[in-house]
Amino acid sequence: TTTTTTTTTTTLFSTTTKTEKENEEDDSTIKNMEAAWRWIRKPLLSIGGKGAKTSHGNSLRQLLDAHTCVKVKVNSQNIGTLEEVFETLKELAVETGASKDVELLQIRQSENMIMFGQPGTLNLIQKGEYPPLTKKQQREMEEEEDVDN
């Protein structure tokens, strides 16, 4: 016999029931997203008080061509919410040739930062395939495989 544990969560708008496995998947996704956030050490693009310009969109496109994820620092609250800044930057990047599927990976209000990703990056993070393993982690996995064989 198999026992399934469920958790019921009530928010202002809805009630959801999740199995233990779904809760573990949520915890795993949170840990993976934190690992991705830490993997990107610093913001590569900054937006000032005058807002995002076409040049910012072009820079974001170029950065996403070179990197899987990019952090953007927003240095003013006068240009809208971080969600609005994401949409504006995404539109500008698409205008300059970026994929329309650029992803919003995470917003950290406390740091005034947005993490953008290439299309498909969120799925990689959820599956634990991003960030890539460090050389030390790779060696440890290889050693474990050698022991198993």
Task: Please give a structural write-up.
A four-stranded mixed sheet has the order 3-4-6-5, with helices on both faces. Helices cover 46% and strands 20% of the residues. It has five helices and six strands; from the N terminus they run E-E-H-E-H-E-H-E-E-H-H. It has helices at 20-39, 54-66, 82-95, 121-127, 135-148; strands at residues 6-10, 15-19, 45-47, 69-74, 103-108, 113-117. Helix 2 crosses helix 3 (82-95). With 149 residues, the chain is α+β, with helices and mostly antiparallel strands.
Percent strand: 15-25%
Largest sheet data: 4 strands, mixed
Termini separation: 33 Å
Query: Which quaternary structure do these chains form?
Result: single chain
Unreliable spans are 1-15
How confident is the prediction overall: mean pLDDT?
86
Helix content: 40-55%
* SS summary, helix count: 5
Topology:
Layout: E1 6-10, E2 15-19, H1 20-39, E3 45-47, H2 54-66, E4 69-74, H3 82-95, E5 103-108, E6 113-117, H4 121-127, H5 135-148
Helix pairs in contact: 2-3
Please tag this protein with its features.
6 strands, four-stranded mixed beta sheet, disordered N terminus, two-stranded antiparallel sheet, 149 residues, alpha+beta
Could you give a short description of this structure?
The protein has helices at 20-39, 54-66, 82-95, 121-127, 135-148, and strands spanning 6-10, 15-19, 45-47, 69-74, 103-108, 113-117. With 149 residues, the protein is an alpha+beta fold. The model is unreliable at 1-15 (pLDDT under 50).
